[in-house]
Specification:
35% of the residues lie in helices and 25% in strands. By secondary structure, it is α/β, with parallel strands linked by helices. Strands 1-4-3-2-5-6-8-7 form an eight-stranded mixed sheet, with helices on both faces. Helix 2 packs across helix 4 and helix 6 packs antiparallel against helix 7. The two termini are 33 Å apart.
Length: 239
Amino acid sequence: MSSAPVTPSSQKAAALYDPAYARRYRSYDDEVQHGGPYRSFAEWLAQVCGLFVPPIDVLDLGCGTGRYFWALSGVRNLVGIDASAAMLVEARHPLHADRITAEVVTLVQGDLLSHEFQAGQFDLIYSIGVLAEHAPLDAAVAAHVWRWLRAGGRFAFTTVHPASPSIPPTLPRRIGRALDRVLPAPLARPLRDRLLAGGLYADERWIMDLLTAFEIETLRQFDSEAHRHCWCVARKRAA
């Protein structure tokens, strides 16, 4: 397991995702593996891998316990980054470890918002249940991903949609959503930033506005047992 510089963000995550939590989370992997939403995420990831001519190099942003490592195919080098050392300990023995086909798996402790990888290091960068959920999906993340991807590489990720039933429909939020639909774009922009918590939620418009340096190949909604999500696959445009 390699290490990266510890930042305040990663310190906070490490404190939250301690060894006891990580063990419970890993046990939950075994419980949910047969559920419909989990299988859908795994099948989607396998389909994304099928878009490439192997072998490919892959980065899992916020890999946690390595829940989806087994779903990847045609992988030469798989890198998983997470802020929690305890979660990475569990990722050494992930779900369906006997079905992982990546030739090399490297685990990195670091903050996905500040860690640096080499430019053009990866063909595929994916993130499930992390961006626009536990970490913001913003311009800085988009710029990092674009730099780390090779030409024609893909960014596949999920977000929590701001219309998710898991987000309390408070009166200010309902009013804000109504105003967002009718206000001119310059006036609506600060309101949208608040509704989307600066990227801690993300809808289709937020994603399209953010990923202008990418060609969006897939963008649709999906309901899991916890949230309404956006699923997105975006291909890096040539510089």
